[in-house]
Amino acid sequence: VKWKKEATNELILKQSVQKFTNFCHPTLPCNVLKFKSTTIMLDCGLDTTSVLNFLPLPLVHSPRLSKLPGWISKDGTINLEKELKDCAGRVFVDSQPEFCLPERELLDLSTIDVILISNYHCMMALPYITEHTGFTGTVYATEPTLQIGRLLMEEVVNFMERVPKAQSATCWKNKEIQRMLPGPLKDAVDVWTWKRCYSMQEVNSALSKVQLVGYSQKVELFGAVQVSPLSSGYSLGSSNWIIQSHHEKVSYVSGSSLLTTHPQPMDQSSLKNSDVLILTGLTQMPTANPDGMLGEFCSNLAMTIRAGGNVLVPCYSSGVIYDLLECLYQFIESASLGTTPFYFISPVANSSLEFSQIFAEWLCHNKQTKVYLPEPPFPHAELIQTNKLKHYPSIHGDFSSEFRQPCVVFTGHPSLRFGDVVHFMELWGKSSLNTIIFTEPDFSYLDALAPYQPLAMKCVYCPIDTRLNFHQVSKLLKEVQPLHVVCPEQYTQPPLTQSHRSDLMLELQPPPMPYRRCSVLNLPFRRRYERVYILPELANSLVPSEIKPGVSVATVSAVVHSKDNKHTLQSVPKPPPVAPSKKRKRVMDEPPVVLAPKPLLSGAVPLEAFLATLQKHGITEVKVEETADGHILHLQAEDTLIQLEEDGTHIVCDNNEPLRTTLRDLVLRFLQKL
Amino acid sequence: MPEINVTPLGAGQDVGRSCILVSIGGKNIMLDCGMHMGYNDDRRFPDFSYITQNGRLTDFLDCVIISHFHLDHCGALPYMSEMVGYDGPIYMTHPTKAICPILLEDFRKITVDKKGETNFFTSQMIKDCMKKVVPLNLHQTVQVDDELEIKAYYAGHVLGAAMVHIKVGSESVVYTVSVNKYAKSHISAWIDKCRPDILISESTYATTIRDSKRCRERDFLKKVHETIERGGKVLIPVFALGRAQELCILLETFWERMNLKAPIYFSTGLTEKANHYYKLFITWTNQKIRKTFVQRNMFEFKHIKAFDRSYADNPGPMVVFATPGMLHAGQSLQIFKKWAGNEKNMVIMPGYCVQGTIGHKILNGQRKLEMEGRATVRLLISFALTKRLIHVGKLLACVFCFHTLQLDVKLQVEYMSFSAHADAKGIMQLIRMAEPRNMLLVHGEAVKMEFLKGKIEQEFSIDCYMPANGETATVTTNPSVPVDISLNLLKREMALGGPLPDPKKPRTMHGTLIMKENSLKLVSSEQALKELGLNEHQLRFTCRVQLQDPHSDPDTLHRIYTHLKSVLKGYTIQHLPDGTVMVESIVIKVSSSAEDTNAKVLLLSWSYQVKHRHCPCSRLSKLGQKHNRLKT
Q1: Can you state the percent helix, strand and coil of chain A, rounding each to 5?
Q2: Residue A358: pLDDT over 80
Q3: Which of A317, B258, B275, B332 could pair covalently with B237 via S-S, beta carbons 3.0-4.6 A apart?
Q4: Which run of H or E residues covers position A391?
Q5: Of A403, A442, A443, A445, which is closest to residue A423 (Cα–Cα)?
Q6: What residue stretches are annotated with the Beta-Casp domain (chain B) (predicted)?
Q7: Vertex B567: Cα angle to B565 and B572 (nearest 5)
Q8: What is the pLDDT of residue A420?
């Protein structure tokens, strides 16, 4: 366990949410939270929308793409023919697609202690953060998140590596040149930091740093902070995180869903009593109802097939596809599509379908019950068994010989820039019989289709995003009542294109604290208390006295032991008895013994009772004089004055130590000690 | 002093009928609720009347936790919850929840339908009982109520077996079934160093220290191979769910590699279903199987085929897995009887056999078996756990006819402990991992427990208990008290320790503990006054010292000041403009009497809170006198 030096008082939230060039929903968060001197990175999302600026990577040589004209500026001064190609009036970079990374300059990545992953879509930047950066921390994720996240990374790496591109375009990134380029290239941000895809080796190394956690598991970080994942209901193994100490609680809500799909339902009640709730990953399609979209998806699919066309569904190989297949399972018979082949093509198609069946613990109740029978939880097992659904690692090999049309093809990547989908776009794009149905909300379909223009095939856009919408969020927040809400700036105002829709923003009291890319927020709470443990020996020696009904106090003198950020209180060891031979001559030279300080006193000394007590102790000659604030007692035999007042007692006597001690003890009898 | 009480209702110095009551921090928990295989009367189930003589158990138990699906750990569950009466939560892992009702139903069918017992739990009761089950995930911290929390760890005994960590406040108990030390190879880490007050462990194999698993596997394959080579038949009695699947995988890969042709059969109706469970709960199996399951599911066998009764008489070598595992009934016993006479054949017992079973007898070297009708009937009924035992009825009939049957055992008998019960080594390793303060052994034979107890006490110097059924082991705990300290107070103390707190250097702190309702707050005394709305009461002392000095009052004071400065090194001494001298927080004033200006009165004044080392009363007044002498 690393030793962490003292606790800091405030909580700093560093934010480096991706900026989206096309829309402004920060669904791929990457935040850093500093809490009690622990540095926690929340998610590791990768902005893949940058790939839309690149030409597609075809699996087989595409004469159309290779014949695209190069780009030369209108005045002819800039010639980037080799790097940039013009397609239907839009300019694309002819190079291996690159990703826009999370901000890495703002803080030293080697200082990050842990990374908490909320779902497999939010970990795609992991190798960029953990590899070659000096990162030595631990990544926490659930088992499905790790396994499926690995599949998604493997898929992207595979897509990129199987069609290597010799050239790597860099000239266009020159600031002076970029300024002259047509949009949207001109407006692309931080193009110098864009990176090519990582290798499989980097993926393996990054994922070897993942430690698996289960829902509601309490993980201690350096003894200072406890983190715990909660079901978020969005995807297999998706989680929200609670980051807390004994007295402070921060909830990180990212990519949650209240809809009933395949994952375990969202755990809402554990989010209660948060001091701060960080809210990210809301739906990117606040106006599209997932159920309605699903219906539209089915009817468009059936219509195309009946007309003899093919259907192309660009999708990720895990997630919504399970729901789509389940929906089709019920729909196929009623729509008499029983003979239509369904193909799922991805290097990880088989793994994804198999893995989905073995995570019973992470599924919704209905699916769990199926496993008890024992039956596979997802009906796609039956689709595969009855040969209605077939999966292939790529269009090469078995697929090319078994392929029958008309058919439905599920394949990636949803950006249409790489993967087998590029081939189907080239193959089917020219016929208006065919339909492409977009279901993933991450990419604007118009941008995705741009390099394929002109296009004859029909396009249907039914994005299915099950994450929370604004209505659900406000209901949720009403339920869990956090003291403060922190969220991306975009959630605090309606979308630019629909500025009148005040229902498409967060309206809260107190208003949420907005953040933007690279901003640093101080979270609004002060830590006041810390947990310590009193060891039994000391606890037994404490003498409590009741001050008020139900309230007792005891003075504590103890030795504090701090280890791994845990503090324990122990009895003060008795000073070793001084050997009589070593008697010091001068009292003043004695080393100062650390004694308990005298307690503070409270209360008042009642005159009559005090006089009675004095009498008992043989002090009988007392003259009482009344003053403005109390009484003065004159102990005549002892020539001593005692001044008794409401909030003070003053004993004035000559050099008579025994008497003073007696009087002190008598006074103390009437006072409370704190 | 708080204490934890542990009372076994079953499995106390005994194997079978696991049921352990734990009282910790005012909570009562039942660990496992099993049946005994050796009895078919009241002793079959734990004696719940220990908990209460009349009425339901709900009021007396906070929760029930089931460790795994073996009937000696969950067989009494429907009886307890539906017939005695318990409505609280029952915790078990997902695989256990899936498989447990199937085994219970089989058990019920055999007891009621075959033997015709009445007053037994019904199918509906099993269903109702399972409705009370709350599934547990690995490592999930489940809050049973505000104070009681439980957490499950992977135990690796059988599919879905779990260790549980039970915690109330700072007291805790860990209960584990037979821990498989190979559990560590499972991707989910083993138990952490949780330092429980008591570690309750099974000790079925307390005296065995087994060699490495790989050695045993090699040995097993060698023996099977040799028998096949010489044309013999191998019988491996197993239970449908458990190690069987692992042994199948082992043989399957061996056959593949050696290109062997001899048939392998698996003889139980439950197998297909069992394999299916293994497929769906693959995350609960070992790492090797998990890693490759996409390419090739290990539970889909190429060489292993379903067994038919007629195959037993086929000539030539073969390997048969047959249920049940202790050769006490059913198919395995039938085949055994057929093959026992031939010394070319071999029976490999891969697990523990309860006393009284044929498995137990032949393992102890008995070569002539008397199979008495009645005894066999009783055994058959109490052990018939699988669906295959539909044949039991027919078998019964023939056993009744024969009364006694002499059987010469000529085939080779081999014992291979593949059963996943913990051995001494595994338990010792577990103790090293979890570092318990006390150890408690259950589910084992008294003699063997005694041996292990001695070993544990010697090696770890911790107390080891082994209560018998109905006997209570009491462990006093000494929990520390959690308190909320004001950060200001803590930081003040931390700051005193220098910029970098040295963990070895203790720091003293003083404060006031406020106890209000259930909260304990430790704050500085000043803050305590403020929070309680109290006024401070000042207690001051003044001491008068007479001295003679001809100088004016301010001069006298100044002389005192200079003198003190020279004498009291290391003290803060200030001469304040208001005509006082401060030694630390002690105030010194000088006044002279009206009559005699030389007679000065030195007033020393200090408050009650002055630390003793500054306390001037004696020292300063002595000084005053010394001063007095000096001047005169």
Answers
A1: 30, 25, 45
A2: yes
A3: B332
A4: strand A389-392
A5: A403
A6: 244-362
A7: 45
A8: 95
Q: Which of B93, B37, B88, B8 is nearest to B281 (CA)?
A: B93
The interface predicted TM-score of the complex, written ipTM, equals 0.81
Q: Are A239 and A252 in contact (CB under 8 A)?
A: no
Q: Where does A443-490 show beta strands of DSSP type E?
A: 458-461, 484-488
Q: What is the pLDDT of residues B190-236, one digit of tens each?
A: 678 889 999 999 887 655 555 566 777 888 899 899 999 999 999 98
Instruction: Report the 10 Å Cβ neighbour count for B137.
Output: 20
- The structure tokens 């300080």 sit at A597
Cβ pair A532:B612 closer than 8 A: no
DSSP A150-208: HHHHHHHHHHHHTS--S----GGGSHHHHHHSPTTGGG-S-GGG-BPPPPHHHHHHHHT
Name the nearest CA neighbour of A360 among A374, A381, A380, A349: A374
Tell me the nearest-neighbour CA distance from B5 into chain A, angstroms. 20
In angstroms, the CA A552 to CA B514 distance is: 6
Nearest to A217 by CA among A241, A195, A235, A199: A241
Q: What is the overall mean pLDDT for chain B?
A: 80
User: Among A197, A170, A154, which Cα is nearest to A417's?
Assistant: A197
The answer to whether B202 is a known catalytic residue is yes
Query: Is residue A76 a contact partner of residue A90, using CB atoms and an 8 Å limit?
Result: no
For residue A581, give the amino acid letter. S
User: Residues with Cβ < 8 Å from B160, sequence gap 6 or more?
Assistant: B68, B69, B92, B93, B94, B95, B96, B98, B99, B281, B284
Contacts of B543 in chain A (CB under 8 A): 652-655, 660
In B588-612, which positions are buried (b, 16+ CB within 10 angstroms) versus exposed (e)? Answer: bbbebeeeeeeebebebbbbbbbee
Position with higher pLDDT, B302 vs B439: B439
Please give the residue of chain A at the shortest CA–CA distance from B516. Answer: A551
Query: Chain A residues with CB inside 8 Å of B534's CB?
Result: 547, 602-603, 672, 674
Q: Which of B202, B246, B252, B414 is catalytic?
A: B202
Task: Give the tens place of pLDDT for each residue, A40-86.
Answer: 999 988 889 999 999 999 988 888 988 999 988 888 888 888 889 99
The proportion of chain B whose per-residue pLDDT surpasses 90, expressed as a percent, equals 25
pLDDT in tens, B477-487: 888 888 999 88
- CA dist B433 and B565 (Å) reads 62
Q: CB under 8 Å to B232, separation ≥6 — which residues?
A: B317, B342, B344, B345, B346
Q: How do residues A583-597 score in pLDDT, each as one tens digit?
A: 444 444 444 445 567
Which token pair is B173?
């108990």
Question: Which residue's structure tokens are 């609720």?
Answer: B33
* pLDDT > 90? residue A321: yes
- List phi, psi (to 5°) of A79: -120, 105
Q: Would you place residue B185 in the very low, low, confident or very high pLDDT band (cuts 50, 70, 90)? A: very low
Q: Under an 8 A CB cutoff, do B611 and A597 touch?
A: yes
Q: Which residue in the set A5, A368, A377 is minimally distant from B500, CB to CB?
A: A5
* pLDDT tops 50 at residue B379: no
Q: What letter represents residue B446's amino acid?
A: A
For residue A287, give the amino acid letter.
T
Q: Taking each helix axis from N to C terminus, what angle separates A657-669 and A607-616, rounded to the nearest 10 degrees?
A: 140
Find how far residue A140's CA is from the centre of its chain: 11
The gap from C-alpha A10 to its chain's centroid, in whole angstroms, comes to 19
* Between B77 and B360, residue with greater pLDDT: B77
Q: Measure B467 CA to nearest chain A CA, in Å.
A: 28
Amino acid at A481: Q
d(CA B575, CA B583) in angstroms, rounded, equals 9
A618: buried, middle or exposed (CB in 10 Å: 19+, 13-18, 0-12)?
exposed
